[in-house]
Design a protein that fits this description.
Blueprint: H1 26-77, E1 88-89, E2 92-93, H2 100-108, H3 124-130, E3 146-147, E4 154-155, E5 165-168, E6 187-188, E7 194-195, E8 215-219, E9 236-237
Antiparallel strand pairs: 1-2, 3-4, 5-8, 6-7, 8-9
């Protein structure tokens, strides 16, 4: 009887072959890279847009808190504090733009750098002018809303904008209209561009209509990196 030994002969059964790895072809690699590029082109703008919307929601919430603090001030002192005036504010020189230290003294009772606003010291006139003679705190200023890289520190919104406009109901009739305000200053965006509001279309400062509020704020929002004019859809309004 003849015995045949197959031990050293290669097997044609794929299940008995030793495992191995097949390399990707150039075409397969290019296909994967193309897919990743397309996905990034889709997801990056979406993520950027979601971030901007989140910052816009946060900025409106900040403005709402400031308005609440202003109302508490009015209840305590019988009128609103003056947060604005002529002079350099952020990157502009305009009326009706918030002056940072006035904001801080009026609504927190302290300076922007956190030091006490001593009524007996150099800030006495400013404190009296802004009305917070008791140095009460109506608002807790978050550190992430203060640009400490500038001396003295400067107030900013969630986008980092330092130009923030404020308009008041000066005659305390519950409506902000042309009788109260005739200046709607342009505001610069931290990323570029300038938002120049239309007093009628954007803010509704008409004699017959107006805005039912005691105080309102607006900023340029995300701005424009190209330095093109900022559209009203990009701006942040406390009342919209």
């Amino acid at each position: 009887m003849m015995l045949t030994i197959f031990m050293n002969q290669p097997s044609n059964n794929p299940t008995l072959r030793s495992p191995g790895r097949r390399a990707f072809t150039i075409i397969e690699l290019l296909t994967v890279v193309s897919c990743i590029t397309v996905l990034m082109a889709i997801t990056v703008p979406i993520a950027h847009g979601l971030r901007n919307r989140a910052l816009k929601v946060r900025a409106k919430a900040q403005f709402g808190q400031w308005a609440t603090a202003m109302e508490q001030f009015r209840v305590e002192y019988g009128g609103y504090p003056v947060l604005s005036g002529s002079g350099t504010v952020g990157s502009s020189t305009q009326d009706n733009l918030i002056q940072s230290d006035r904001f801080a003294v009026a609504l927190t009772g302290r300076h922007m750098d956190g030091t006490d606003a001593d009524l007996r010291g150099p800030s006495v006139q400013a404190a009296k002018k802004d009305g917070n003679t008791k140095l009460l705190s109506f608002y807790n200023l978050s550190p992430d809303l203060v640009d400490t890289s500038i001396t003295p520190p400067v107030l900013m919104d969630s986008f980092g904008n330092k130009d923030i406009a404020v308009l008041y109901d000066n005659n305390l009739d519950g409506i902000i209209n042309i009788s109260d305000q005739n200046k709607t200053p342009p505001v610069k965006g931290v990323n570029g561009g300038v938002f120049t509001p239309n007093p009628t279309a954007d803010i509704n400062l008409t004699q017959s209509q107006g805005i039912r509020a005691g105080v309102i704020f607006y900023s340029a929002g995300v701005g424009n990196s190209s330095d093109d004019p900022v559209d009203s859809d990009q701006a942040v309004f406390s009342w919209k």
